[in-house]
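wait is this the right file?? whatever heres the structure
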């Protein structure tokens, strides 16, 4: 029954949005001609901008009195602060914009979604562009409110000096594989649950930061790494943060869709609901009941109002 009610709520949301979307004017421009498409692109811009601004701000070692703290040593307290900040911030942005754009804020999420055809290649391209620009703007905003001595490293992600580029790619690939697999599992529309996807995804981001920061900075997000790289002008092994996350994200999306997805060869939610309605063991509420209930409530309201006159 939980799945039934979830299906009903999703169906209502779809019906409400169909009026705004209207009929597509052509196959090529069916998304471009819709305001909902550009609103989603804008949401990805704003969400990534805020994510990078707040997340990278947590990497700045600035004390309350304004004095600088050396950034050479990465202690456990700082790792926890960074991990919690990114995890809670991504959860916040998903809660804010998840119903608008899907809450990607990461090319390593948008591109795999296009690979498994959950979104169109055009949407993935626009999302990725918006995320990269938004992240860079967020890092520029951080630079504008940060003392000059920190501008050389505004949250730049780097591979540990004891690791080579291949190991860095492996780390980012595995970290992002874990993240995207979690996203695919939690956000599967066939799952009959009312739990918060934002909480699960945010917790995963935090855990991966706790483990991954000493290895490669735990970026898992090319747009986030690009923003810090551009603003701080630090390009050493930056390509690692495109190759690793995108490979890991695509592998996770494909694995879930073709290996782990338990609903692949089963009834769709709509087919399951229709089957449930046809089930003789079910007690269905007739439409007339709702009309009677509405009329009764209306009559009671009239009586209450009359009694106060």
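ok assuming it is, sequence goes like this
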């Amino acid at each position: 029954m939980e799945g039934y009610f979830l299906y009903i709520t999703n169906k209502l949301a779809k019906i409400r949005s169909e009026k705004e979307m209207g009929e597509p004017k052509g196959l090529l421009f069916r998304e471009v001609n819709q305001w909902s498409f550009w609103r989603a692109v804008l949401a990805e811009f704003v969400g990534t901008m805020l994510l990078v601004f707040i997340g990278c701000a947590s990497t700045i070692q600035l004390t309350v009195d304004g004095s600088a703290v050396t950034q050479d040593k990465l202690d456990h307290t700082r790792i926890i602060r960074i991990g919690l900040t990114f995890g809670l911030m991504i959860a916040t942005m998903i809660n804010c914009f998840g119903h608008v754009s899907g809450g990607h804020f990461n090319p390593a999420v948008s591109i795999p979604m296009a690979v498994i055809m959950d979104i169109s290649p055009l949407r993935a391209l626009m999302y990725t562009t918006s995320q990269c620009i938004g992240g860079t703007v967020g890092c520029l905003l951080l630079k504008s409110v940060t003392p000059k001595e920190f501008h050389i490293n505004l949250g730049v992600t780097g591979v540990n000096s004891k690791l080579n580029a291949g190991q860095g790619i492996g780390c980012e690939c595995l970290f992002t594989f874990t993240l995207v697999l979690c996203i695919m599992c939690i956000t599967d529309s066939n799952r009959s649950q009312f739990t918060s996807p934002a909480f699960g995804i945010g917790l995963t981001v935090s855990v991966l930061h706790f483990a991954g920061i000493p290895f490669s900075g735990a970026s898992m997000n090319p747009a986030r790494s690009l923003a810090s790289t551009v603003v701080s002008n630090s390009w050493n092994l930056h390509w690692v943060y495109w190759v690793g996350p995108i490979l890991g994200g695509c592998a996770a999306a494909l694995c879930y869709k073709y290996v782990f997805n338990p609903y692949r060869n089963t009834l769709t939610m709509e087919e399951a609901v229709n089957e449930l309605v046809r089930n003789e063991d079910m007690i269905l509420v007739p439409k007339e009941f709702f009309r009677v209930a509405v009329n009764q409530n209306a009559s009671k309201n009239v009586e209450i109002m009359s009694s106060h006159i």
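Residues 32 and 38 are 7 Å apart (CA to CA). so i think its the right one actually
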